[in-house]
Amino acid sequence: MATGRNHRPATRSRGIPEATVARLPLYLRALTALSERSVPTVSSEELAAAAGVNSAKLRKDFSYLGSYGTRGVGYDVEYLVYQISRELGLTQDWPVVIVGIGNLGAALANYGGFASRGFRVAALIDADPAMAGKPVAGMPVQHADELEKIISDNGVSIGVIATPAGAAQQVCERLVAAGVTSILNFAPTVLSVPDGVDVRKVDLSIELQILAFHEQRKAGEEADAEAASRKGPDGDMPAVMPA
Amino acid sequence: MATGRNHRPATRSRGIPEATVARLPLYLRALTALSERSVPTVSSEELAAAAGVNSAKLRKDFSYLGSYGTRGVGYDVEYLVYQISRELGLTQDWPVVIVGIGNLGAALANYGGFASRGFRVAALIDADPAMAGKPVAGMPVQHADELEKIISDNGVSIGVIATPAGAAQQVCERLVAAGVTSILNFAPTVLSVPDGVDVRKVDLSIELQILAFHEQRKAGEEADAEAASRKGPDGDMPAVMPA
DNA sequence: ATGTCTTTGTGAACGCGTGCACAAAGATAG
DNA sequence: CTATCTTTGTGCACGCGTTCACAAAGACAT
Questions:
Q1: Separation of A16 CA and D17 C1' (Å)
Q2: pLDDT per residue rounded down to tens, chain B (243 residues)
Q3: Of A13, A137, B158, B209, most Cβ neighbours within 10 A?
Q4: Which segments of B are annotated as binding site?
Q5: Which bases in strand D are touched by protein, i.e. have an atom under 7 Å from a CB?
Q6: All domains of chain A in start order, with CATH
Q7: Å: A72 CA to D5 C1'
Q8: What's the rounded Cα separation, in Å, for the pair B160 and B65?
Q9: Residue B3: CB less than 7 A from any atom in strand C
């Protein structure tokens, strides 16, 4: 049992750096938009601007995939869309299960971007018997008892956990035992998984706290600059100061 | 990953590395759990395990905050909770607005972790007039016309964008113009913001695509391993190497 | 007081990611 | 065909983050 396997497998996946992989979806989205506007080619400078990254970085990223550009011209949009899609494995169908159909789970089930590209919601699963059979996003919720069967029957390898924190680890273990090897975790918990299983975490609370940190820093710098006169009644005096 | 803050200027946050800041909420969560179990002290090894990180990394992270540990003993849980909370700016109240009350926006409004620690949902805003006045999470949705007034009246500096992609940039600009300096973006778009504004992005679709990449790689390796074992004992010979 | 034991705090080495700057490659015009 | 212009692909250097390994610091027992 490995402790929270959040760090990368350390092995560069087929020579493609993790940082590059994380940007490929970004490029793909920008390219898809260009494709819909029937733009035939795009330069690294233009595409980088659309994706919000540095053009040198983009070119280096693409160089890991191969030499798909034409010097003096740029990149063929359609060809690049295909190459990135293939590299990301989006040319095949990925059945996905969502476990925990509360507010968030339901929102995820309704999320359009889910079905759009290669991903298909194979089932919605909840532990509450009262939810069973209830339609969410045009699909009946199934009871957690069926979890193993659903995963096996549909060949699901990607699971989304949207349960309360307390249930997440247990759900995770059942998913893994049933054959899931990639998990997207929305529950605010560190998941322990065996080697070979990938976990990605989406944590609203953490993102907000990081923003708060920077916000506080900005406020502090402002106050220092302005000699601090008009700040709200709640300063940050220590209310609790344990020894 | 935030596109608006990719090239972070020289504003290195008071000497605390960004990577460390991103982990502080993780430590805080683990410490809060210990605190609730009335555990008085914790070693770096134990806490690191609970947070799913390396213990040396944790100690180095804490060293940026100061010397809050006692050699031979560990860290005082309550004291550390306070120090990290203060460092993250969670000892003060952060009013937050959520713009775009669709499935996701409603889920966020109902999310408990929101209110739990310093963050308070000041208003729910939507552009659809039919939504106005409708209660979501015990709070009436307000029309987008009121956006500037709401932000100004409540001193909101953090905004959450949960609108469709097409509306995100425009909403973002209005938020920034009204005084918001930190944005959490759930819309699948690259946001352009002026310097001094922090953007963090949460993108379900990107996370799934990254998982798909690794999933595909796993499947490929399996196939390679099979092929290799079928061929002969020496496993690491020329895999697929396109010219 | 002294020695032993535990655990922190950190110097140093290393590896990854980023961005600059430029040569190579191809398009295009004359 | 040659010259020029555009844009890619990448060698290189630099800085950040991670990890190791250990000395310093304090607790605790005798």
A1: 19
A2: 333 333 333 334 468 999 999 999 999 999 999 999 999 999 999 999 999 999 999 999 999 999 899 999 999 999 999 999 999 999 999 999 999 999 999 999 999 877 777 899 999 999 999 999 999 999 999 999 999 999 999 999 999 999 999 999 999 999 999 999 999 999 999 999 999 999 999 999 999 999 999 999 998 766 666 666 655 443 333 333 332
A3: B209
A4: 100-105
A5: 5-11, 16-21, 24-28
A6: 18-88 (1.10.10.10), 94-204 (3.40.50.720)
A7: 8
A8: 29
A9: no
